[in-house]
Structures are given as C-alpha cells and as structure tokens.
Amino acid sequence: MVRFTLSSSLLVLAFASFATAAPSLQERTSEPTSGFVGQTTCNGKTYTYRELAGYGFVPSNFRDKYGDTVSLGSSIALERKSWEKKTRAVLGGGNRTIETYYEGTLWTMPDRGWNTEGTTLWQPRLHKFQIDFTPKLANAASPSPPNVKLLYIDTILLRDPSGKPISGLEPTTILNYGGFPALPAAKYTGDGFGGAGQGGVRVSMDPEGLVLDTQDDDGGFWISDEYGPYVYKFDKTGKMNMAVRPPDAYIPQRNGTQSFASNNPPIYNPDLHPVPANPESGRSNNQGFEGLTVSGDGKSLYVMLQSAMIQDGGLDKTTNRYTRMLEYDISGKGKAKLSGEYVVPLPQYIDPTKKPGSKPRTAGQSEIQALGDDQFFVLSRDGFGRGTDLTTSQYRQIDVVDIRKASDIKPRKLQTVTTSPTSGTLLSSITPAMYCPFLNFNVDSELSKFGLRNGGADDENCLNEKWESIAMMPVDGNDGDDDEWWVLSMSDNDFITQDGYISTGDIRYVDGSGKNFDNQALFFRVKLPNNSKPFSEKNY
Ligand SMILES: *[C@@H]1O[C@H](CO)[C@@H](O)[C@H](O)[C@H]1NC(C)=O
Ligand SMILES: *[C@@H]1O[C@H](CO)[C@@H](O)[C@H](O)[C@H]1NC(C)=O
Ligand SMILES: *[C@@H]1O[C@H](CO)[C@@H](O)[C@H](O)[C@H]1NC(C)=O
Hints:
Blueprint: H1 2-21, E1 38-42, E2 45-58, E3 75-92, E4 95-109, E5 125-133, E6 148-157, E7 173-175, E8 183-188, E9 200-203, E10 207-212, E11 221-225, E12 231-234, E13 240-244, E14 253-254, E15 257-258, E16 289-294, E17 300-305, E18 322-329, E19 337-345, E20 348-349, E21 361-362, E22 364-372, E23 375-381, E24 396-402, E25 434-440, H2 444-447, E26 466-467, E27 471-474, E28 484-492, E29 500-502, E30 507-509, E31 519-527
Antiparallel strand pairs: 1-2, 2-31, 3-4, 4-5, 5-6, 7-8, 8-9, 10-11, 11-12, 12-13, 14-15, 16-17, 17-18, 18-19, 20-21, 22-23, 23-24, 24-25, 26-28, 27-28, 28-31, 29-30
One 2-acetamido-2-deoxy-beta-D-glucopyranose is lined by residues 92-93, 95.
C-alpha cells in the first residue's frame, strides 16, 4: 500500500511538471505590441517611450554588512553578462501559470553619506545587488504591487592609494601620492562624526558617476566625483589606482588657487564655511561630474558637469545651462587620455515658486548613458519632488543628446564658453550639442499603474526628488538586436530615515526632516533607433 501511494504521488508530480511546459497553458505575455507614451526624433533617429513597466524600492532603514544605512541612487551599473531573461511557474488561486522575469547583478553607489546636518567621516562605498524584475501589465484601476526586487549581496568600501579609508568630508586641504594629481582631502577633528577622537586627514570624495571597467584584465570601477571634480579608477577591492584631473578651467579657484570645498561644513563644525563661499571659477559648488558613461565597446569614457562652470554662468540658475562634457580614450590599459570636449545646452523650465514672468531656470543633469553613434541619454531634472518645497516636479526627464555636429573645443583649451559669466550667452564660435526632450518621468497615467504619482502628499507614493542613475538592459535578455530596451533609474534618497546608522553601525541618526524616504527604482520600456548598440559586447 505504502509503495503504491508513493509512486502515484510521484506520477502526479511528474505530470504536473510536464503540464507546466505544455503549450496549452497560456504564457502571460506582458510586452506591449503597440501604443506609446512619448516619442522624439533626434538628428534623424527615433526614440519611443513605450511604458512604465516596473517599480520597486529598498527601504530607507535597510543596512549594509558594515551596519550602515544604505542609500544607492547616485549611480548604478549593470554587470552586463549577468542579465538573463527567464521563466518560472507561479502557483496561486488553483492555477499554475508561467511568468517571464529577469535577473541581473547591479552595482549601486550612494554619494558622500548622510549629510543633511553636515558632512562626516563616513566612507564612500559601492553596494552589489541582485535584481529580480517581473514586467507586469498593470493599469491605474488595479495598480501592480512592486515588481522589482533588490536583493542585497555585498558592499565594497573605497580606499585611497595608500589603502586608507576615503571620507565624505568637505575638502579643506590636499594629499599627494606619487603618480597621482593633488587629491582633495579633509583635516578632521575628533572622530569625524562630532564625537571624541584623535582627528586626522583623509582623501575626500562625493561620488556621483559609476562605470564598470572592461579594459583592464582585473576589472574595477571608474567613479566620477563632484569635489574635484575628478574621475577616479578603483580596483575590484575598492583601492584607488588612478585619478584623472580635468583641464584647469574645471578646477575650483578661491583667491586664485585651487580650493575643493563645496560649502558643506562638517557636522562637528557647522561654521567652517569656505571663504569666499563660491569659487571664483571652475565647477560650481555641488555641480561637479554627475554624469559618467562608457561607450558600448568600453573604450571611451564620457563625463559631464551637472551644470555650467562659474565662468560660464554657473552662479545663477537662469544662466547656467551651458554645461560641458569631456571624452577620454581609455583603451590603453591604465590610461585615460583626453580626446574631446563638448558644450551641452541643458533644458530650462518655469519655476512656479518664483514670481510670475521670472526667467526660465536650468534643469541640471544627474546622469548620462552612451547609446552609440554620438548619441547619449541624459537625465535632467529640477529640484522638486518628495521632501522639497514643492512635491510636484516640473521637469524630470531622460532626454537625448547628440554630439555629431557639436564643436570639439578641446584644442582651444577654453577657460570660458560664454560671452560673460553674468549673461551665460554661448560664444558664437561654438556649436553646442543637439538636445532633444524625450522620456518624462512625471506622467501620472503611467505612474498610477504602480500606485505612484508626481506631487501631492509627501508620502511613499510620491516620487523622490533626486533621480540620478540610468542602467539599460535588453528586453530580449540577450543582445537587444530588436532595439527594445529596459531603462532602469533609481533615486538618491539622501540617507533620509528616522532609523539610520553611520560609522559602521556605531552611531544612530534620526534625520531632522521627520521623514523616511525609500530608495525608489523605476523600469521604463523604450524602443531605440534602428541598430542601436548601447552595449554590444557581453564582456562584463
Ligand atoms: C484561474 O483561472 C480561471 C480560469 O481561467 C480564472 O477564472 C480565475 O480567475 C483564475 N484565478 C486566478 C487566481 O488567477
Ligand atoms: C581667501 O582670502 C580671504 C581674505 O584674505 C581669506 O579669509 C580666505 O581664507 C582665503 N580663502 C582661501 C580658500 O584661501
Ligand atoms: C528601421 O528599420 C525598419 C525595418 O528594417 C524600416 O522599415 C525603417 O524604415 C527603419 N527606420 C529608419 C528610421 O531607418
């Protein structure tokens, strides 16, 4: 009897798994075949925003393996080889269906740490996550629950060329290492968090852009920052092995000498402001290298300032639209050779909190993504959203930039690209890049598919302010030959939580806002122009 029961249940199991694969069971297809939310044609190439297809988040009080609060949207980078399209059986309600999902490994980067009350000795780092994304056909009438899962794997702490921890403190000095340019650094007192201690000096970084390296056999990470603004290379363990200093025009100057402070005093001395507060020239405070990307073949690195430099109109939001992008040839292992410089005109928007008739203001950019053929995605946005004066964002878009016809101004070594810092008018001898508005995050009919919205109550369904990252994944899970791509963007939540930890879990913090901002993530589906290759080699 016992034997019989056992074998018959085995039979049932075998039949069930056969039934899973049988074609009579309808596959839940969730890929749209027609219709779109937005479209643009840029220098003859057409881009289509099909739909918002995914939403997920990492909770604001999630902690890494060192015990510190996780924030992560300043930049993200996909391990391309890891991206896979899969299917799995789903049981429920007496039915068994097959769903399509994707898996991949995503590197995510926070900036300089919790700093709403001052910068700290916190050590910048990278977090590795496994992503699990199940596209859903959703609509506003029955919104989908979150369908993007982010499973924490690991954290890498960033260290200087001598192996010492880097910190997020505002730079007050420099450190010199053989073979490196002068590195922005901070002298600190106490424990660097406002408690007792011996003090010391640490290299300072405010990381904003992340690219995984494929040129060196040992891999590693390129990271752009906004103190220098510099571009750094780190090995796989998180140790700095290269620093790239941009042309002199980019280096912030006070009293005629380099001065890397961004006017964000340390938490232990809120009065330690740089004098003068703003540099006289070079990158504006907190407007450094926000955008970093690499060409599909891994050989060209592009880095873009958030908005214009001070001498290009950078001190005023009505004049700071002419930002600059640098191109580096990184095909020679361990080298980065400046190979191009372009002016990009950022978009402008009307700020409803200002007097009617006020001049349009610049939407600074927070990330770029190379698409091939001299075209790029650029994520530009105003400063509105959850936790700001106005929860309703006026401009939050992934747009298209084309540099094919733009002047390469690198040979001219220009200190300024505008007629005067106060006018912000571009020199007539420069052809800027073409800028084409494209994918608007703030379309409520799309957001409502996941119960989200732009504006309204300052709650967890309202979009965060700081969307600062882009990763792209082929919809076919393979090489994207059909030009159908997912675009993932994540927001930087500024470590805002009522249940926070810094200093390897030793110090608890409670953000003064009284808020908890999750680290939100959105998956958009786009159709790229014919034969686009954001990346063609599955080499990392
Ligand atoms: C199961 O399938 C039946 C028949 O197709 C359908 O009516 C029912 O809604 C399904 N149940 C669930 C939970 O999906
Ligand atoms: C610039 O000069 C002023 C006036 O002499 C001085 O107070 C300030 O510390 C100087 N700033 C820097 C960064 O050298
Ligand atoms: C893209 O390719 C399709 C099919 O090959 C073709 O019909 C269409 O004209 C192409 N579009 C452009 C803009 O080249």
